[in-house]
Amino acid sequence: MIDRVLIANRGAIAVRIIRTLQAMNIRAIAVYAEADRHARHVRLADEAWSLGEGQVRDTYLNQDKLLAIAAQSGAQALHPGYGFLSEKPEFVTRCEAAGLHFLGPDAAQMLAFGLKHRARELAEQNAVPLLPGSGLLTSLQQAQAAAQQIGYPVMLKSTAGGGGIGMQRCNSADELEDAFTRVKRLAGNNFADDGVFLEKFIARARHIEVQIFGDGHGNVIALGERDCSAQRRNQKVLEETPAPRLSDAVRAQLQATAVRLARAVNYRSAGTVEYVYDEVSQQFWFLEVNTRLQVEHGVTELVYGVDLVRWMVELAQQRLPPLATLQPVAQGHAIQVRLYAEDPAKQFQPSAGLLSHVQFPTALDHATLRIDSSVESGMEVSPFYDPMLAKILVHAADRRRAL
Fold first, then answer.
1. What's the pLDDT tens digit per position in 263-282?
2. DSSP state, residue 203
3. Active-site residue 292, yes or no?
4. Cα(284)–Cα(35) distance, integer angstroms
5. Surface-to-core class of residue 283, CB atoms within 10 Å of its CB (0-12 exposed, 13-18 middle, 19+ buried)
6. Which of 4, 206, 268, 292 is flagged as catalytic?
7. pLDDT, tens digit, for every residue of 359-389?
8. Burial of 64 (0-12, 13-18, 19+ CB in 10 A)
9. CA angle, 290 as apex, 288 and 295 as ends, to 5°?
């Protein structure tokens, strides 16, 4: 029985998880850095524990503090949200050693998909279409030889991490030479892993992803696909489901390959398989797997009428019905806009400061409105965290109405 869950996160995702836990009559336990003492997720939780002063590494990324609070608070499970420790296999191992249910995939599944070059190998073994690419590259000379074979333009990618960090398009050998050391250094600083590889760059590509859910015993279902092509600096800003302008055949193939890949590792919990799609040729190629709840999971929930966080908890409680009986049917269209604290006059750099007045709409005609946010009037936007303030989601009968 799980009746106390620690949320190892902050902001909009912490607020969103609290909403589901409280609807399930489960006690939501929040954590906070002192800079977040008055944050909305702290006030909404049933109880909140301080992680002390300091930057992210001393607070939300401090595994020792989180596990100590879990023990002291009597939590039986931990939800990592997204970002922070959500895709750290060593943290999953430590949670399970402490007797905590980690609400997400297991450590072996994270390791299988966590490094992009390993995920490519697994995709190849399971007949998932792949862009031409390389293995891990240890030198510029090796990278230039691989790029010559693949053909420019190429994308130089960090094998670890995400969020668009450690990616650089290279149109020529000179650009690759300029980017190679910089991307390796950036990857090492951000992810403690400076491994890089190359992939063919598709100029007119769309970014399509499939939401999956597995029970850890080889049963996996797909909950449609999302289009996340509207991006800035390789970070998503608009997401929608279903993806527009896809044939039924392509939709079916995308979902079938995602399910096949997840079944190969007996995937557990929520995850996302991401693809590049060429609208002209109607071909798609594997990008990566995110072994966590996605920022854009809400559009899937609205269209399919599900609560993925509830499913994650019920799976850990061994109360989730067989997945084959849970396969819902898509209804309507949903779109999400990410709202950021950024300065467009400074190339969209994050912008900290006081939010003197915050007001969101409360209802829409002929559409369902959902606001996933933790901001309110009088709140200080911190310089220490991601600048996303809110996610505005709308669900309507069709795409035109949703837009």
1. 999 999 999 999 999 988 89
2. T
3. yes
4. 44
5. middle
6. 292
7. 999 999 999 999 999 999 999 998 888 899 9
8. exposed
9. 125
